[in-house]
Amino acid sequence: WVFLWEKGYQEKDSVVSSVTTKAKGVAQTNTSQLGFRIWDVADYVIPAQEENSLFIMTNMIITVNQTQGTCPEIPDKTTVCESDANCTAGSSGTHSNGVQTGRCVPFNGSVKTCEVASWCPVEDDSRVPRRNILPNISTAYLKSCVYDAHTDPFCPIFRLGQVVESAGHSFQDMAVEGGIMGIQVKWDCNLDRAASLCLPRYSFRRLDTRDADHNVSPGYNFRFAKYYRDLAGQEQRTLIKAYGIRFDVIVFGKAGKFDVIPTMINVGSGLALLGVATVLCDIIVLYCMKKRFYYREKKYKFVEDYEQGLAGDTEQ
Questions:
Q1: In terms of Cα–Cα distance, which of 62, 249, 258 is closest to 156?
Q2: Annotated binding site: which residue ranges?
Q3: Structure pTM?
Q4: Residues 180-204: pLDDT tens digits?
Q5: CB atoms closer than 10 angstroms to residue 267
Q6: What is the C-alpha to C-alpha distance for residues 240 and 298, in angstroms, rounded to an integer?
Q7: Residue ranges of domains in the chain, CATH in brackets
Q8: Which residues are annotated as a binding site for ATP?
Q9: How far apart are CA 105 and CA 118, in angstroms?
Q10: Nearest to 27 by CA among 17, 44, 39
Q11: pLDDT per position as a tens digit, 104-126
Q12: Which residues contact 237 (CB under 8 A, 6 or more apart)?
């Protein structure tokens, strides 16, 4: 077991890795707010480079032309009001978009909310928009291959939908609220064999919580803004709440190569265990089994002491 399965004759070390990621491709959207638009890598990969991970924006909420001013807050149980008495000047909640001015103003034709000093108009995210390399790999192969566990298990190019589905989730559902996926790369190498046989194994799993009972903040999202000034010199910004899938590349594994020291240690340990096994078997047979007296008689042979025999003959 130790030598054949666990390879006890090898010296082993863990993997030290450096991961680089690159996204390619374009996407198309046609919304009432932005109209027809083509998105490339510079648009949907945020930030452009991360350590051991890659974020791809798959959904977003855009609030355009925001300026510093006062405007009605988004309606909820803490901001809906009937008069100024319901609003406290200078207060700001954990989830508010600004500081209240103390005035109760119309949000629309039927609802009034407390006015806030903030970037206006404030963001309304209450409704999330919905919508249905190994050495032998050549450049020509990389341009045509796509990872498949059966036909191309070593191709390092993945389709987003295939990665999510391989983890047992729906890409359409995950693209709406975002999430975190782990791309696991496992190396298990026997360096006593040819280096070309040291190959990676890919697997995928979802890392963020999807427990229905503890789903407080589902998915993955963050906000960023683009600032500019209009012709009058007033500062404005476009606020974007980005939903997407973050891919964390996790590399792990081990490698082993023959070494005299672990070989001798395991040989010595095996010999020592053989001696212990003999003692253990004797204890079980001689003291624990029902026929222990029979085994004791067969194991030990009682002989008469020679010197006592001679003394007896002399006395006679």
A1: 249
A2: 22-24, 221-223, 241
A3: 0.56
A4: 888 888 888 887 887 777 888 888 8
A5: 14
A6: 88
A7: 20-68+119-123+130-258 (2.60.490.10), 260-299 (no CATH)
A8: 22-24, 221-223, 241
A9: 15
A10: 39
A11: 999 988 899 999 999 999 888 76
A12: 66, 67, 119, 225, 226, 227, 228
